[in-house]
Amino acid sequence: MKSSQRTVISFLAAVFLSSSCTSSKLANRPLLLEAYNVGLLIIDGVYNTELTAPMDIFQHTQYRKGIKPMNVFTVAKNAKPVESFEGLKIIPDYTFKSAPHIDILVVPSAEHHLDSDLEDTEMINWVRRVGKQAEWVTSHCDGAFVLAQAGLLDEVASTTFPSDIAAYKIRFPQLEVISDVLFVHDGKFITSAGGAKSFEAALYLCEYLYGAEIAQRLAKGLVIDWDLSELSFHKFQR
Question: Which CATH superfamily hosts domain 32-235?
């Protein structure tokens, strides 16, 4: 074999190996060390606010000194762009198969979380597996339906989008469901009513982890009035 041929082959091999090593990371954004890994599940029809609210709050922990920050990334079934209900096109950071360990699982609501999404066994199985291993599991709006379908909420209290409480109780009669609150904290699970109140649920977890001062600074950075004592939520002591 000629030297030039060996050079070409070696170059192609290096390109292939480089591609293989980096294929698990779809976005060129390195993860911080000594940080919480926050994985946000995204599927077609995901609602913008339930996705971007926790993403905004958690990502801003990286700018607060003296705390364990959060790596925030999206996870989807495959590498195809996901389209939100409102039309936002999102390129996933990771797939179900390539995502790193997740410390905080976030399940935003999506258009079909009350029907066809609950029949997606690959997605439900992934949520079940990751949810069992995670330190914290949060949902916003109808994301609670996905957690319930995965069997993660059977032994805790939870809530969901106010208008879907009745449907939630019918589909999951075994659950303890709390109505008329912004969010419920039970064990490692935080389920919220969703919408713009997804910001409050995310800030609550930050206050729980980092204290009131950090939560206030995070809220101020996003021009959010934050006073936990004024919020309607339920925390269970078991």
Answer: Class I glutamine amidotransferase (GATase) domain (3.40.50.880)
Q: Is the pLDDT assigned to residue 236 strictly greater than 80?
A: yes
Distance separating alpha carbons of residues 43 and 90, to the nearest angstrom: 10
Which DSSP string corresponds to 22-38? HTT--SS-PPPSSSEEE
* Strand, helix or coil for residue 91: coil
- Nearest to 146, CA basis, from 175, 182, 120: 120
Domain borders along the chain are 32-235
How far is 75 from 117, CA to CA, in rounded Å? 16
Kindly report the pTM of this predicted structure. 0.87
Query: Which region among 8-12, 46-50, 57-61 has the lowest average model confidence (pLDDT)?
Result: 8-12
Q: Is residue 237 very low, low, confident or very high in pLDDT (cuts 50, 70, 90)? A: confident
Sheet with 189-192: strands ordered across: 94-95, 70-76, 36-41, 104-107, 136-140, 189-192, 183-186, 233-235
